[in-house]
Amino acid sequence: MTERRREMAPSTSNLKQLLKYQSKCLRLEMFDGQGQLVLIVTHFIIKLCSEDDEIIILLKSLEDSAKLCWIYSRHSEEDRKFSTMFWNFITQLKVFFEVPNFKRTANPNEVVAAFVDLLLELLEEILHRRPYFIHGKVEKFIQTLKMELKFLITFLGDTPSQLTELETTKIVLKDIEAVANDVGSFLYSFFLNKDRISIGEMNKSLSDLLRNVELVKESITTHCFTVAHIWSSRMTPKIAVVSLSSVDSILDYIEDRINNDDRIADVKDQIRTIHQNLTNLKNGIKELEIERCQEREEFSMQFFYVAYEVEYIINSFAPVSYVTLRLLQVIEKIKPMRMQLQELKKNDAGMLKDAKYPRKHITLPGQRSLIGEDYLYGFKDAEMEILKSIREEPRQIQVISITGMPGLGKTTLANRLYNNPMIIQHFIRRLWCVVSRTHRRRNMLIDILMSIDIDNKEQFLNMEDEMLVERLYKSLKGRRYIFIMDDIWNVNAWDDIKRCFPDDDNGSRILFTSRNMDVAVMTSYKSRRNYPLRFLVEDESWDLLQQKVFNEEQCPPELVDVGKKIAGNCGGLPITIVMIASVLKNLEKKPSSWMKVAENITSYISKETNEYMSVLEESYNDLPMYLKPCFLYIGVFEKVREIPVKKLIMLWHAEGFIGKVERKSSEDVAQEYLMDLINRSLLLVAKRKSDGRIKSCTIHGAMHDMCSRLAEKDNFVKVITDRLSIYEQHHCLSIRSHSIPSFSRPFGLHIHSLLGHLPDTSAFIFSSLKHLKVLDMSTLDLSLYNLTGIEVLAFLRFLAVSSIPSSIEIFKNLEFLLVDNKEVVEIPVLLSMVKLRHVHFSGGAQFSKYWRQELQDESFQKSNLQNLSSIFIYDENDEKVLRFFPNLRILKCNFTVFLDSSEKCYRYPAFNYLTQVEFLDISFRPCYESDDISLKLISLPLNLRKLTLRYFDLSWMQMKKIGELPNLEVLKLRDDTIEGKQWDTNEGEFIRLRYLELDAVQIEHWNVSDDHFPVLERIVLRSCYLLEEIPYSIGDISRLQKIEVHGCAKSIEDSAVQIQEEQRDLGNDLIVTISGL
C-alpha cells in the first residue's frame, strides 16, 4: 500500500469518540462493547478496500455525521440521522463476515488466515468486554473456539507452499475456509444486530461450530499423515545466523514444559527423548574447536532449526494427534545429525579451513587499492608520523599497525609508504604480502618471496614449504628490511611465518594493515605502535569527490551544493566517495539527477559494483559465530543515531546472545563482545563515560546498510516501514512507521523481538507471540489500550513502556524494565520477580504504600535487583524498603532529611548497608527541616567506585569521609557547597580517584598537593564561578592527562594554560580544553 493511499484512508476518530461516550447521542449499542466490534471490522475493511468502494464512501459519511453529533445537542436531528446511518452501515458489513476475495498477497493461505485473525480479534474483544450474556457455558465455548481458530492459523502458516497444489491439501483448505465463514456468520448474526440475544440459540450455534471444527481437525491430521514424507514446515524459521547461547534458553524452556505443562502429558516421553538428544548435540558442538569452519556453522544452524521446531510445536495450539506427527518428524531429523557430529569430530579443523579457502592468485603491492595512489588528503599527518616512527625509533624489530574500517584507505597508505623514496633508501629489503581473511601459510611465503624476486615465480611454486622458509630467512639475515602484511585479520597469520624474520637489532620493521585493532597488540614484540585512520572531514570528502568526478576541472556552480551533500552523505569513508564518484561520472550533470543519488547513496553504489559490498561483508564473515547475532541486532537501531550501550547490552542479554564464561559475569562478557566489535571496526565509539567505559556507540552508514541487508536476508531482523504480514518470518521486527496499513496482525511463535515506533497494540496478537523476549512499547500510552493476551508473554525478558502495566508481576522471567514516565509513579511490588535485575524510571518513582505495609516482616523475600533508578526516599520506611535490595550495584535516588523515630532526630538516609553498591548517584531535595539543624554525615557504602552528589552542603568532615573511600574512582560534585567555600585535601585521600568533576560547586579556594590524588587522570571544572584558580600542584600528578574548563572565570582558564605550559616544558603531554557553556 502506497504512502498516498495511507494518507487518503478514512478517519474513524469521531466515530470512535462518539461510540465511547454514548451519552452524547441516542442509545446505539444493544450491549456494552458492540460499537467496538463495529470499529474492529471497520479497520479491517479500510485495509481491504480502496477509497472509491461503496462501503468506504458510506464510512466517510458516517464519520462526518459523527462529527456533527458532537456539535449539536442530544436527541437532535443529527443524532437521529446518525443512528439510521449507523445501523445501515452495520447491515452493509454482513458481506465482510466471510473470507474476502483478496489477491494482493504471495501466500495463498494468508487471505484465509487474515480473516480468521479478524474473527480472533472480535472474540478477544467479546471476552474482554464480557457483555451480560457471556458467562457459564457460553464463555467456555467462546474460549474453546478462540483456541481452535489459533490452531487453524498455525496450520495455514505451517503448510508448505508446494503442498497447496495437491488435491488433498486443497480440500482441507476449503474445509478451513468453510468453517471460518461459519464462524463469521455466527458472529455477525449474534453480535451485530438489533434483536435480543437468545443464550439458548447461541449455545446451540457454538456447539455446532465446535463440532464442525473437530471434523476439520480430524481431516487435517489425516492429511498430514498422508503427506508426511514431503512435509517441510514453513513456520520453522530459516535464520542464517545462530547463537548457541540462544539454544540454551530453548532447551531450558522445553525442560520446563516437560515438568510443568499438563497439556503435553500424552507426548512427554517423546519430548523428553528429543530434549536429551538435543542436549547431547549441543554439548558435542561446543566441544568442536573449528570455530569459523563452514561445516560447523552449517551444522549449528541445522541444530538450531530443529530445537526451535520443537519449541514451536509445543506451543502451536495444536491437537495431540498433530503434535505427535510433528514430533515424529523431528525425531527423524535428529537421527542423521548424530552421525554428522561424529564426522565433524573426526576431521581436522585446520584441514577443513584450508580446504574451504584456497588462495588462487598472488597479489602484489598496489593491486588492491580501490581509492588510488594519487589521493592523500586524509593521510598526510599519518604518513609523516609513521615515517618518523619507522626511521627513528628503536633498533629492535617494531610492529606498526594501520587500522580502521574497510574503505578508509589502509592499503593506499601502505602502498605509499612502501614506495616512498625515504623507505626505499633506508631499507635494503622491502617485502609485501596480502594476507586476506582465509590465509594459507604457503601462499603467503610465495607472495613474500615474489615481492623481492618476481622472476623466480615458477621456482618458488615448486619448492617445499620448509625450503621457502629457509630461502626467505637467509635473504633477510643481517639486512635491514620492512615487511608489509596487508589486510591481516588475526595474529595467527603472523605467527605462521614470524620465524622467517630475523631480529638483528638493525631497525627492521613489520607493518600491518588491519580492520582489527587487536592484531598488533597480540604479537609477542614489546615495541608496538598503532595508527588508527580517521574518517575524512567534510572539506576533504568534497575535495576527493571533485577530484574523482572532474579530474583537474572545477565543479559547475549549479552542482556544488548537491555535490557537497553527496560527499557528506558518504560519511567520510573514502571508498564510498570513490564508488559514488564513478556513478556520477556516468550520470548527466544536472542537479535533479545528482539529488536522486544524494538521497540513496548505497542503492546507486550496489547497482554499480558488487565489490563495494563484498569488501564490507568480509568483516561480517570473519566474525565468530557467537558475535554474528550481536552485530546483526544493531539493525534494530535507526541509521546515524547514537546507540546507548547500556540498552544494547540489555537487549543482547534478553535475547540470550551472551554466553556463559567461567569466572566472568555476564556483564563482563557482554562488554568483551562490544569491545571485540569495536576493535574489528564494525562499531565506532561515540561517547565515553567518566570512568573511560563506553557510553554510546555508532555504526557507519555503509556498515549499517550492510548490517540491515544481511539481517533481513538471513531472516534475523526486518525493518517495517509499510506493511506487516500475518506470517512474518523474522526473529526481530523493528517498526519504523507510526501507522501500519497491514492486512492482518502478525501471528507467529518465531518472533522474539518487537521494537521501534509500535502502532497501537491492536496491531499485535500478544497471545500468539508467546515467545517474545523483547517488547518495546515506550512510544505508546498503555492506559489507552486493551492489552488482551499480554499476560501469556512468559518469556519476556526486556520490557520498555511509558507506564507500568497493572499486572507487571506476571512476567516471571523479566530481567529489564524501562519506564519512560513523565511524572513520578509508584513502584509496584517487584520482589516476586526473582529474575528482575534492572529497573529504570525516567521521571522518577516512589515506593507504594503496599511496600511499606508488607515489608515490615524481615523474613520477606529479598530481591535480586542490581540496578535501580531513579527513586525518591521520603522517610525511614522507604529506607527500610531499600534493605530488601541487598544485591544492588547501581542506585540513583533523590532524598530529603527525615525524622528518625527511634533517635528522635533528623538525618539523611543510610546507605552503608548496601554493601554491593558500586555506583551511587544522589540528589538532595532541601526542605525546611534541614535549614536549621545539624545533620550527621551521609553513611556511604565502602565498595563505591563512582559517586555523584547534587545540591548538598558538604562539611569538611564529609569530604574527608568521601576521600577515604578505598575504591572510589569517579567523583562528581554538582551544585554543591563545601563548608567555608574552601577544600583542603589531605595525604591518603582519594588514592584511587581517576576522574574528578566539579560542576557549579560553591568553592573559592582549593588547596591540594600532588600526592593527594596519586592516580588522577582527568579533571573537569564547569561553572565554578567562585574558584580563583586551579592549584598549580595539580600539574605534578604523574598520571594527569587532561584538564577541562567550561564556563569558568578567566583566572581559572589562565591557571589551566599555565599548568599545561609548565608540563610541556617538562616533556609531558597534558591536554587542556577550554570553552564557554
UniProtKB/TrEMBL annotation:
One term of GO molecular function: ATP binding
Keyword Repeat carried by entry: yes
Residues in NB-ARC domain copies: 393-554
GO cellular component terms given for this protein: cytoplasm
Keywords, sorted A to Z: ATP-binding, Cytoplasm, Hypersensitive response, Leucine-rich repeat, Nucleotide-binding, Plant defense, Repeat
Residues in Disease resistance R13L4/SHOC-2-like LRR domain copies: 764-1053
An example Gene Ontology biological process: defense response to virus
Subcellular location per the Swiss-Prot or TrEMBL entry: Cytoplasm
Segments forming domain Disease resistance protein winged helix: 636-706
Residue ranges of coiled coil: none
InterPro entries: Apaf_helical, Disease_R_plants, LRR_dom_sf, LRR_R13L4/SHOC2-like, NB-ARC, P-loop_NTPase, WH-like_DNA-bd_sf, WHD_DRP
Major location (coarse): cytoplasm
Function (record text): Confers resistance to late blight (Phytophthora infestans) races carrying the avirulence gene Avr1. Resistance proteins guard the plant against pathogens that contain an appropriate avirulence protein via an indirect interaction with this avirulence protein. That triggers a defense system including the hypersensitive response, which restricts the pathogen growth.
Family statement drawn from the similarity comment of this UniProt entry: Belongs to the disease resistance NB-LRR family.
Name under which the protein is recorded: Late blight resistance homolog R1A-3
Organism: Olea europaea subsp. europaea
